[in-house]
Amino acid sequence: MAVERTLVLAKPDAVRKNVVGKIIARFEDEGFKLVALKKLKLTKEQAGQFYIVHKERPFYDELCEFMSSGPIVAMVWEGENAIARVRAIMGATDPAKAEEGTLRKLYGSNVGENAVHGSDSVESANYEIPFFFSGLELIG
Ligand code: DAT
Ligand code: MG
C-alpha cells in the first residue's frame, strides 16, 4: 500500500443540494488529508475533456451537459490507498445500487446525477489532478 492522492468532485447536483460540507466532512472523518480545494464551473467543452475516456459512450453528451450545468467543487484528498478507499466511500455509479451509507446512496439521485466523482486509478488521478490544480495549489 502507498500514500496516494485522488481527485474528488462534488458534482453540480451535490452543490445544488447543499451537501458539499457533508462530503468534505466524510473524507475528513475517514482520516484523509485535504490537499487542494476549489469551486468552479466547467464549460461543456471542459467537461468533455475531463471525461474524454468516455467519448464513445452513449451517455457522453448527457454527462457533459450535466457536469457543466452548474458549479462543482474540486478537491484532492491524500491518504493510504486513497484511490480505492475513496471509491468505496462513494459507492456504486448508480445510487440505486450503492451500499447504505455511501455518498452516492446518501446524496445521489440517479446514475447520471450521482453527487461525486473519484479517480479510479493512479493513471486517472495523474490526469485528473493536474486538470484542476497546479503544483503550487497542492499543499500536502
Ligand atoms: P464512475 O463515476 O463510477 O467512475 P463511470 O466512469 O463509468 O462511473 O462513468 C462516469 C460518469 O458517467 C458517471 O459517474 C455518471 C455517468 N454515467 C455512467 N453510466 C451512465 C449511464 N448508464 N447513464 C447516464 N450516465 C452515466
Ligand atoms: Mg469512472
From TrEMBL:
Coiled coil: none annotated. Its main location: cytoplasm. Its cofactor is Mg(2+). The active site is at H117. Keywords: ATP-binding, Cytoplasm, Kinase, Magnesium, Metal-binding, Nucleotide metabolism, Nucleotide-binding, Phosphoprotein, Transferase. One of its GO terms (biological process) is CTP biosynthetic process. Belongs to the NDK family. Homotetramer. This is Nucleoside diphosphate kinase. The lineage of its organism: Bacteria, Pseudomonadati, Aquificota, Aquificia, Aquificales.
